[in-house]
Amino acid sequence: MPVTVLLVDDEPLVRAGLRAVLEAQPDIEVVGEAADGAAVIPLVRRLRPDVVAMDVRMPLLDGIEATRAVLRTVEDPPKILVITTFENDEYVYEALRAGAAGFLLKRARPAEIVHAVRLVAEGESLLFPASVRQLAAEYGDDGGNRAARAVMERAQLTEREAEVLRLMARGLSNAEIAARLVVGTETVKSHVSAVLAKLGARDRTQAVIAAYESGFVAPG
Prior knowledge:
This protein is 54% helix and 13% strand. It has helices at residues 12-23, 40-47, 63-73, 90-98, 110-122, 129-139, 146-155, 159-169, 174-181, 185-199, 204-214; strands at residues 3-8, 28-34, 51-55, 79-84, 102-105. Strands 2-1-3-4-5 form a five-stranded parallel sheet, with helices on both faces. The mean pLDDT is 92.
């Protein structure tokens, strides 16, 4: 089955460019488009895309609020891939905190766009881990977020789960973590699932953000 994508951007040329790049791939299908975040929820419910590629800044409803709305109101929501002009942007970090699984630069090369969509859809690795770390260092609470610290304390991660979370924050995939720890990939998947469940995180990006903001992992 192809990865299905909904494109949300107020610039028609951006949507057309993304559509051309993605539909050139046999395993990706663009199922719809929207010009503003306000139109996302009904389209998501009707089209059931795997990934929503969403502009972070739009006139009526921006990508941050649209991300929150989708994840709050849609059952079994899609992964959100935020599209942005600037990499080191507080809006991007806020979108990640709101629940976006990753972000994509509008100037990205076609191969990077395709890779980002596939990676976010698979959910087994962190997209642009160094950039996420940099964003957390600049815009995160750097261990000062009481709510994040409380969640981390309540999670009571085992020693192995804590080790897996640290490796997730470094951007290692499940296969890379398995090789590092000399265990099977399925074992790593079980540990990752346990970490997400204990932290109440929707995906590994949210778990990593929580790790940074609680001070469990230093973003620097």
